[in-house]
Specification:
CATH topology of the largest domain: Aminopeptidase
CATH architecture of the largest domain: 3-Layer(aba) Sandwich
Radius of gyration: 23 Å
Number of helices: 10
Distance between the termini: 35 Å
Strand content: 25-35%
CATH class of the largest domain: Alpha Beta
Number of strands: 18
Length: 410
């Protein structure tokens, strides 16, 4: 089974799956075959294009999609995501495809800060309800409006087509931990490590984890639980760590004030933005600001394990004093034979190095070679990550060559 993110170039496969779903299970959807059959290629590309606010996932049998699901945020940084357009081909059911699709969508939402995920399900679709409950959803008791035009006799009827909304499952697999150490790694940037109490875990560099502050001095509507990239490496004594720009949110103010030894709950790291296993390729890591955190984990792991990677790290910040881990990265460059570090400071008059904003032309100039020769990984604020990713794709790179992750405020 291969559930994966749908690429914009696969819009025809997505369209085919959607139209098959509307023919096979018309009562499950708000739209109709007639309405969607006439949509053009541009509309489908826009629908399918993966971004920071929405994504399609599919299970593929090699020629067609045998199952699809869509996940989307209603508003940026709202913490609320929705699942919809879930469908599995009737010939492929009872194989675990539905659950795999839901779990992939939930993981994508969690990586982007979802604190709650909702979905609507027809009360008469017992198999679908059982699936969602097995994935940790539970009914809220709220009823949504009727699915217009899809009553048993073709008429909207809220009594016949009851729809309930379900919420993100509560925290599972939490492990007790405490704040082990805190240090400033740049102006306004705090690194915090957590000591696990009686637990041993492992993870792949690049993954994220959930952390919940148990006795925070500040609170707001988002609560004390967040997900954040693991900045430490598995080689550093198994201690989970994070690094964050200090802002005025309740979570960050609490994190800054809590003393060493303060209790927290953490969860096993997970994610898909990972250190690649293939060491034969030339990699370019592009980091903007706090987007350095997954790459710090990856590079520390490479150095500590003595792995034979070839990596160029292009690291963009406003100025030197706000550049997290700069001294350590320079040390890693000396320790890793295949590593090259290039920093750009866009607003630092004292910096005598590169000051350009990053795009495909600047990256090509820095690399001194054709872009097609490299595999790219990008991490940073949403606007920066998307801008650089789009620029590389417009320069002719394939979507398989460019992976991006974005970091929103919290």
């Amino acid at each position: 089974m291969a559930v994966r993110l749908v690429r914009e170039s696969e819009w025809e496969l997505a369209r085919d799956a959607r139209l098959r779903a509307l023919v096979e299970s018309p009562a499950a959807f708000l739209s109709t075959f007639a309405e969607e059959e006439g949509l053009g290629a541009d509309e489908w590309r826009e629908r399918v294009h993966p971004g920071d606010r929405s994504a399609w996932f599919a299970e593929s049998d090699g020629e067609r999609f045998s199952g699809v699901i869509v996940v989307a945020f209603a508003e940026p940084d709202s913490g609320l995501a929705s699942l919809f357009s879930m469908w599995v081909d009737s010939a492929c059911r009872r194989r675990g495809i539905g659950r795999a699709l839901v779990e992939a969508a939930l993981a994508w939402a969690a990586e982007r800060g979802a604190l709650r995920v909702e979905l609507e399900v027809n009360e008469e679709m017992h198999a679908a309800r059982s699936l969602y409950e097995a994935c940790g959803f539970s009914p809220t008791g709220r009823r949504a409006s009727a699915l217009a035009g899809f009553g048993r006799n073709g008429d909207a009827d809220d009594g016949e087509i009851g729809v309930r909304t379900a919420t993100m499952p509560a925290t599972k697999g939490a492990m007790q931990a405490k704040i082990k150490a805190k240090r400033e790694v740049a102006k306004g940037t705090l690194m915090v490590t957590f000591e696990l109490l009686g637990e041993e875990i492992d993870w792949t560099p690049g993954e994220y984890f959930w952390v919940e502050l148990l006795d925070p001095p500040y609170d707001d509507e988002k609560g004390p639980r967040r997900h954040i990239t693991v900045v430490t490496s598995p080689t550093e004594g198994g201690a989970l760590g994070l690094a964050t720009r200090l802002r005025d949110s309740a979570f960050k103010k609490s994190l800054a004030e809590l003393p060493e030894g303060a209790p927290v709950d953490v969860e096993q790291p997970k994610g898909s933005f990972l250190l690649p296993e293939d060491t034969s390729k030339d990699y370019v890591f592009i980091a903007g600001g706090i987007g350095i955190t997954p790459f710090r984990s990856m590079l520390r792991y490479i150095a500590d394990k003595g792995l034979d990677y070839k990596v160029t790290l292009i690291y963009s910040n406003r100025d030197r004093e706000s550049t997290a881990f700069l001294d350590e990265l320079e040390e890693l460059e000396r320790a890793i034979p295949g590593m090259r570090l290039v920093c750009t400071m866009t607003q630092d008059d004292t910096w005598d190095g590169d000051t350009r904003m990053l795009d495909a032309d600047v990256v090509k100039d820095i690399l001194g070679a054709d872009l097609e020769s490299f595999q790219f990984m990008i991490a940073g604020p949403p606007q920066m990550a998307k801008s650089v990713q789009d620029s590389l794709l417009e320069a002719g790179l394939s979507e398989e060559q460019v992976a991006a992750d974005s970091f929103s405020g919290y």
